[in-house]
């Protein structure tokens, strides 16, 4: 097993999880007022559970990108070629996760939440998954993956 698969691979997992958690935790707190359950969110640790769910989605997206690119370690070469795949996979996962959550009454939006046309899901949670996960992958790759010489 080479160095990337062991030491760097483990560090990537940690950094992806850490950056994803921090970005999603901040976003969850900033957009909580767009939900009907705002008071409940702010008086509980419900948003912490949502954040942990978002981190799980991060790794699902990573796996989907790996499958599409046929490279489990695609992040070592994260570039403009892989970026569209990341954004598309994140968009698909985001839509499915948010649609399921709304359909199962996990939460609901208030009148302040902008809705994505045609998809019928909230714009803020949709963008949270797309933007935060893309940034998590980018940051983790820049922090952990050695630069090519």
UniProtKB/TrEMBL annotation:
It comes from Fulvivirga kasyanovii. Keywords: Membrane, Transmembrane, Transmembrane helix. The lineage of its organism: Bacteria, Pseudomonadati, Bacteroidota, Cytophagia, Cytophagales. This is PreQ0 transporter. The chain crosses the membrane at residues 12-30, 45-69, 81-102, 114-140.
């Amino acid at each position: 097993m080479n160095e990337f698969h062991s030491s760097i691979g483990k560090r990537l997992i940690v950094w992806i999880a850490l950056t994803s958690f921090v970005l999603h935790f901040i976003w969850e707190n900033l957009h909580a007022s767009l939900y009907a359950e705002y008071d409940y969110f702010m008086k509980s640790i419900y948003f912490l559970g949502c954040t942990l769910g978002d981190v799980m989605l991060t790794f699902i997206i990573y796996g989907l990108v790996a499958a599409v690119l046929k490279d489990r370690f695609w992040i070592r070469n994260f570039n403009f070629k892989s970026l569209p795949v990341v954004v598309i996979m994140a968009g698909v996962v985001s839509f499915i996760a948010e649609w399921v959550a709304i359909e199962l009454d996990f939460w609901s939006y208030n009148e302040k939440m902008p809705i994505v046309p045609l998809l019928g899901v909230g714009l803020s949670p949709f963008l949270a998954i797309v933007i935060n996960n893309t940034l998590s992958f980018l940051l983790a790759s820049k922090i952990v993956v050695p630069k090519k010489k």
